[in-house]
Specification:
118 residues, mainly beta, five-stranded mixed sheet, two-stranded antiparallel ribbon, oxidoreductase, iron-sulfur cluster binding, oxidoreductase activity
Length: 118
């Protein structure tokens, strides 16, 4: 069933975040790239936290295109898989953000130009 939530194109301005940081604000900042746009996170943030600090979804479903924001948040449900720009799969809820990391929220972007669907 299609979601009634709108999906944000890459060129669109940042949407309101799903999460708001209320503690541990003194950790060192780092930069990473979300759909080609440079954004910031704090050292020790999981990819899930870092992405949801920027927008309301972690990825778009490769099956329906509907926005996904994770489900169990503990690595058991498979709902938070993301891809790096080079096509590697990462589980957002258990992967720490690293300086310069490049991730995509749309499945099609990860396989574009690689000659195969993943």
């Amino acid at each position: 069933m299609p979601s009634s939530l709108p999906s944000t194109p890459a060129a669109a301005p940042r949407r309101e975040p799903q999460f708001m940081r209320v503690a541990e604000t003194q950790r060192a900042p780092l930069r990473f790239f979300l759909d080609g746009h440079e954004v910031t996170a704090l050292q020790g943030d999981t990819l899930l936290t870092a992405v949801l600090m920027q927008q309301r979804r972690v990825r778009d479903s490769e099956f329906s295109g509907a926005p996904r924001a994770g489900f169990c948040l503990i690595g058991a449900c498979q709902d938070c898989w993301m891809r790096t720009e080079d096509g590697r799969r990462l589980r957002a809820c258990s992967t720490l953000v690293t300086e310069g990391m490049r991730v995509l929220t749309r499945f099609a972007d990860a396989s574009a130009g690689q000659g195969e669907a993943r």
